[in-house]
Amino acid sequence: MAEIHLRSRHRPSDADIVPSGLRRVVMVVEYDGTAYSGWQRQANAPSVQQCMEEAFTALTGEQVPVIGCSRTDAGVHALGLVCHMDTGCRIPPDRLPYALNTKLPWDIRVRAAGVAPPGFHARFSTCAKVYRYTFYNSRQMCAIGRQYAAHVPKEMEDARIHLAARSLLGTHDFRAFAASGNESKTTVRTMYAIRLWREGEKVIFRIMGDGFLYNMVRIIAGTLSEIGTGKRPPSCIREAVETGSRLCLGMTAPACGLVLERVLYEGDEGVIPKLFDPEQSGVYYSGSGKE
Fold first, then answer.
1. Residue closest to 196 by CA, chosen among 154, 240, 165
2. Distance spanning both ends of the chain, measured CA to CA
3. Is CATH 3.30.70.580 the right assignment for the domain spanning 14-115?
4. Structural contact between residues 272 and 284, judged by C-beta atoms closer than 8 angstroms
5. Which of 18, 46, 69, 233 has its CA 20 to 30 A from that of 108?
6. What does each C-alpha distance from 11 to 8, 16, 120, 188, 233 come to in angstroms?
7. DSSP letter (8 states) at residue 269
């Protein structure tokens, strides 16, 4: 297993200053994204951030922004999105999830909350993110769980997917993997670890990186599905990395199969082996050929 050290690039800024009399509370949120336009508040569509802010106002009377670690696309789900808010609310943090969940819709749950350490910012302090994508690989799509997987009716060959996915590991310019509308200042990212496995008729792909471009994971997933079914060669991912050409890659996979699993900060290294156990098959680390 390659050793991974999580280091935040965040430098102190005005965003770290908590106004006098307030405290910064950090929360871990799980949500089913089916009914939402994504995390970020939108003018004409429901969002998870909007629901969180409105629930907190209904609970306490305070109107405060809830700052998320990142955006998610419409229809994308989350098991562990991290967010924070600066509040004068005196509800003990360990009781806040119970209280807030009484005001939230059934498809959004606050799983944990606590007082943020000094200098913490949900977005700027992020060191890495872990996403999971699920395909339902069967002639017929399932009825139960269909909102959490993308249907691939043609058989996917595991060996082809594994060979292709390894080309993602390491530090590269991933400009070919960004959808139009990407606003990132740089397209260079580091992918630390990958896991690919099957659960019955599901083919599941998990990836950990220091950051991801707009639609990047969905483009990777769509490309892997086409590689697995023989539509594209396994070499296409390596070619896309080397040339920067989006034409080398496949479709953008549907949002429903994507889940933001974990957001990692400094000190979270112990979580990594639980998600990418080097003793399991289909696990690959950057800088290590170990499987």
1. 165
2. 8
3. yes
4. no
5. 18
6. 8, 9, 10, 20, 42
7. G
The size of the chain, in residues, is: 291
The one catalytic residue among 32, 73, 86, 210: 73
pLDDT (tens digit per residue) in 242-285? 999 999 999 999 999 999 999 999 999 999 999 999 989 999 99
Task: Name 50's Cβ contacts closer than 8 Å, sequence gap at least 6.
Answer: 41, 42
Select from 229, 224, 219, 205 the least CA-distant residue to 157. 229
Which of 247, 264, 244 is CA-nearest to residue 192?
264
Q: What does the block give as tokens for 281?
A: 């098959």
Q: Which helix (H) or strand (E) holds 218?
A: helix 216-228
What's the pLDDT score for residue 12?
A: 76
Say whether 86 is catalytic.
no
For residue 289, the model assigns a pLDDT of 41
Q: Say what the pLDDT of residue 185 is.
A: 83
For the record, the structure tokens of 55 come out as: 């629930």
Sorted by where each begins, the domain ranges of the chain are 14-115, 128-285
Q: Which residues of the chain have pLDDT under 50?
A: 288-291
pLDDT at 86: 97
- What is the reported pLDDT for 291? 43
Q: Does domain 128-285 match CATH 3.30.70.660? A: yes
Tokens of 151: 């249907």
Angle between helices 216-228 and 236-243 (to 10 degrees): 140
Model confidence, pTM? 0.95
User: What confidence score (pLDDT) does residue 34 get?
Assistant: 97
